[in-house]
Amino acid sequence: MAPGCFRFDRFLLDPGDRRLTRDGAPVDLNARYLDALSLLVREQGKLVSKDRFLDEVWHGVPVTDEALTQCIRTIRRQLGDDAARPRFIETVPKHGYRFIAPVDSGVETSAPAALPPAAAPTGSSALFLQLGGAGMIGGGTAGVLGGLFYGLGAAQPLQSGMGASSTVFVLIALTAGVGVIGGGGVGIGIAAARTAWGRASLGSIIGGAFGGLVVGAVVKLLGVDAFNLLFGQSPGGMTGAGEGALLGAAIGFGTWLSAGRSLGLRVTAAATALTGAAVGVLIPLLGGRLMGGSLDLLARQFPTSRLSLDPIGGLFGEADFGPISQTVTGGLEGALFCGFVVGTIILVQRRSGGGA
Is there a contact between 90 and 75 (Cβ–Cβ < 8 Å)? Predict the structure, then answer.
């Protein structure tokens, strides 16, 4: 048997040559599943945890538990194994899997086979693209809904026609753009944290908070500069780094719930939306502003504009867009933004897991 190969039962596994054969005939396994089998065989008799599969087989790219289950199911089918009466792969419920068949190794070594040089960077790049893109989609969707709400409220005192319609469309475009940027930044922050600390680490909360902080600070800086350049004045109290960090932390918490506790999409999205709502309520109470408060600030800074959120304040018994209105709409904004971003991230992970 060639060095680096493993023989078990009637099978010969050659990780270096990327081949599995049974009595000399090739056994069909895709690259990802072959890596999973190689990991199990190398650790014969030892428990291989789910997190280790994610780190060494999927290289940190987030996937669902269903993807790992499908991977093991396919390997068992190709080996002729039975999960109820295993001869090769034993399931350790809620922990992972163990290869239980005797293995004859061509080389006495417990070191993992070297990954191709391009494998790790590719996984990291895919993770940043995946979470950043999912965050942009989720944040943009929440922004559209928020813009529609504020646009319809601001358009009430306007006469029907192009004036009211343009107000709605402008606000939708504005809030959607902020949502896309914010969601993308938080997603990239979470991806960086997972690359550094692992998929199920609480570092996702730190990464989300840092991504939200950076994006919030940059958006506020650009907004202030733009208003100063165009109008010679700017509302300095607009939403910024602090608000972005708190919302980003809530999203990071939601992705940690999904990865660390394997909760379903609906439960995780609902829990994250509730966390975001609590953060959204807290921000105005601490003197901060989310999108509604920032829009109201703009309307008061430029009184000749057609923008006014006072009708929304009337829904909550206030003469203008006061503290109650800002608190309630802040909770709605936080729930929408955090729930949609985390929900979209989970959906993208599931699609990726199915493709794996």
Answer: no
Element (H, E) at 90: strand 89-92
Tens-digit pLDDT profile for residues 62-121: 777 888 899 999 999 999 999 889 999 999 988 899 999 999 876 444 444 444 444 434
- Rounded (10°) angle between helices 323-355 and 241-261: 40
d(CA 61, CA 181): 22
Q: Which fold has domain 6-104?
A: Arc Repressor Mutant, subunit A (1.10.10)
CB within 8 A of 90, min separation 6: which ones? 97, 98, 99, 100
Q: What is the 3-state secondary structure (H, E, C) of 16-48?
A: CCCEEEECCEECCCCHHHHHHHHHHHHCCCCEE
* Other beta carbons less than 10 A from residue 108's beta carbon: 5
SS3 state of residue 304 = coil
Residue linked to tokens 């999108």: 291
What is the three-state SS of 320-335? CCCHHHHHHHHHHHHH
**194 token code pair:** 């997972």
Q: Report how far residue 169's alpha carbon sits from residue 162's, in angstroms, rounded to the nearest whole number.
A: 10
Half-sphere exposure at residue 25, Cβ-oriented, CA atoms within 13 angstroms: 4
Element (H, E) at 350: helix 323-355
Which three-class secondary structure state does DSSP give residue 63?
A: coil
Q: Is the pLDDT of residue 19 over 60?
A: yes
**Pairing state of beta strands 11-14 and 96-99?**
unpaired
Domain coordinates of the chain in residue numbers? 6-104, 126-355
Between CA 23 and CA 3 the distance in angstroms is 18
pTM of the model: 0.66
Average pLDDT of the residues in 269-289: 92
